[in-house]
Write a structure and sequence with these properties.
Length: about 210
């Protein structure tokens, strides 16, 4: 579910914390960097066990072992370009807010990766089988399917853009460095289809929910 735009100071604090935020540090001059915050324009998650179900209306995003849940999130290209303007991109970070975790085991926790998407998708039509299912109520694939199983055909870049460690009982923000991807979006050397977030070792127990 895409977050609504905040208006003035009437937005409650928990609403702000429930947003997906990338941070762009943009210097107008070398000694004066500015931070811009953008909101996701679309987000959802995919479930292998319900491969033709769309989760775009859910108020949370999820990664987990059972059913191979993976999260998708995207930001508007024009807004990114406007935020940078005539300045220079210093860094870009994708931030997700943890609302729940369970069974994150091991003394070192578990690694969660963000991958640049290489294919377009829609919030209301993305499923495990489809980038844009035109009928998500009939439990069939009404689309030209993508392949979320076979690594050689993934609709995302196999090498993660960034990997972070999620520890048991962790709360608050998780943050991935996506500067390299955003630089490509701005240069026009890669299309902005957003990112996919998944566990590095998807067979290990544990699940995490993020705010949508």
């Amino acid at each position: 579910m895409s977050p609504r735009r905040p208006s003035g100071r009437s937005v409650p604090l928990f609403t702000l914390l429930a947003l997906l935020l990338p941070i762009l540090l943009l210097p107008a001059a070398p000694a004066h960097a500015q931070t811009q915050t953008l909101l996701a324009t679309q987000d959802t998650y995919l479930k292998r066990w319900r491969p033709n179900r769309n989760q775009g209306e859910k108020r949370f995003l999820r990664v987990r072992r059972l059913g191979r849940n993976r999260t998708l999130v995207q930001f508007d290209q024009a807004e990114i370009a406007d935020a940078v303007g005539t300045g220079m991109l210093v860094s870009a970070k994708l931030r997700l807010y943890i609302t729940f975790d369970r069974n994150i085991r091991g003394k070192d926790g578990q690694k969660v990766a963000v991958h640049r998407m290489s294919q377009a998708w829609t919030e209301g039509g993305a499923t495990w089988n489809c980038p844009d299912d035109t009928n998500t109520t009939n439990h069939r694939s009404d689309c030209t399917r993508w392949n979320m199983r076979k690594s050689s055909e993934w609709p995302f870049v196999g090498t993660p853009t960034d990997v972070i460690l999620h520890q048991k009982g962790q709360s608050g923000w998780l943050e991935w460095d996506v500067t390299a991807d955003v630089a490509q979006f701005l240069a026009g050397t890669a299309e902005n289809y957003g990112w996919l977030v998944k566990k590095v070792k998807e067979w290990r127990l544990g699940r995490v929910r993020y705010s949508s």
